[in-house]
Design a protein that fits this description.
single chain; about 300 residues; alpha+beta; globular
């Protein structure tokens, strides 16, 4: 019987101005082992972050993605045993659901002898997740840009230079569901705010490609989602200010939050400590992670 193990990185999306199109893969992982077993049984086990909330039945995102791949491949699996070890905080803006979907799809494609090309797998995962930014970064690694052209997923990947690290403050007693974070956004935004984000997203990509952290910092400013999601995270502006005072060039929500992140070559500990203290001042306990950027993306573990 076929058996495969995959490793998929966490991701930060939006990164400030790149709403729904920028993604960054992080050195924090979910691993999934999938084994085809006799009979028509499905067995799912999970441990690690979010163990109590990760579905272990037919509603599992990993299982849903796997069966979409099997269906598209014309493959009829026997039973499945899936074992998940998740190190990605759930409902904190670090792409845990995208990682689960990508892991299930990638493993299933290995089970059925790689019948689907990567672009088909990514399209399937994007359709399930509905937000492609995390999916693309999780699949490809590095810094990614994505969008759609006539419903077809389009994307590009950029290698991120070594030494750049993400400093992330993750609230432990505050979570935000993506659906809630989307629901709070307006249907229309002022023209000047759209123009602001276009300029800042250009600064962000320019800074990432030229190792110019000042430009990256400018690019982490946002007017399309931060002002609205701030209402869901008490004291968010205090956390932003504390990070900048400690040496951060720019600060943003990671995805829809509540995790807050910055990118830096220097001062990771002072910045992290400042964000943690700012959260504590408003009654929110947070942990700090300093993560490398993952340039490899999802991969098979031999």
């Amino acid at each position: 019987m076929a058996c495969v193990k995959v490793c998929v990185p966490a991701t930060a999306a939006n990164l400030g101005s790149g709403f729904d199109c920028f993604g960054l893969a992080l050195g924090l992982y979910q691993t999934l082992k999938m084994e085809e077993i006799p009979g028509r049984v499905i067995r799912i086990s999970a441990r690690g972050e979010g163990n109590s909330v990760l579905a272990k039945n037919k509603t599992s995102l990993s299982l849903k993605a796997a069966y979409k791949v099997f269906e598209a491949s014309g493959y009829n699996p026997k039973g499945l045993r899936i074992s998940i070890v998740n190190n990605i905080p759930v409902a904190r803006g670090l792409g845990s659901s995208a990682a689960s979907i990508v892991a299930g799809a990638l493993a299933a494609n290995e089970i059925c002898k790689r019948r689907l090309p990567q672009e088909n797998l990514m399209q399937i995962c994007s359709d399930i997740e509905t937000h492609a930014d995390n999916v693309v970064a999780s699949f490809l690694g590095g810094l990614t840009i994505c969008g759609h052209e006539k419903k077809k997923l389009i994307y590009r990947k950029f290698f991120v230079r070594y030494g750049l690290r993400a400093v992330i403050a993750v609230p432990l007693n505050l979570e935000i569901k993506t659906k809630e974070a989307v629901r709070i956004l307006p249907k229309k935004v002022p023209f000047r705010d759209a123009a602001f984000n276009i300029s800042r997203s250009a600064f962000f990509i320019s800074g990432m490609l030229t190792d110019d952290l000042e430009a990256v910092g400018l690019g982490m400013s946002d007017r399309l989602h931060h002002p609205y999601r701030e209402k869901m995270i008490p004291g968010l502006e205090d956390v932003f200010r504390a990070a900048k005072k400690a040496g951060a060039q720019g600060v943003s929500l990671s995805g829809s939050g509540p995790a807050v992140m910055t990118l830096t070559h220097r001062y990771p500990k002072p910045i992290g400590d400042a964000m943690k203290a700012a959260f504590k001042n408003i009654g929110i306990k947070a942990k700090v992670m300093v993560l490398d950027i993952d340039n490899k993306g999802a991969r098979i573990i031999k």
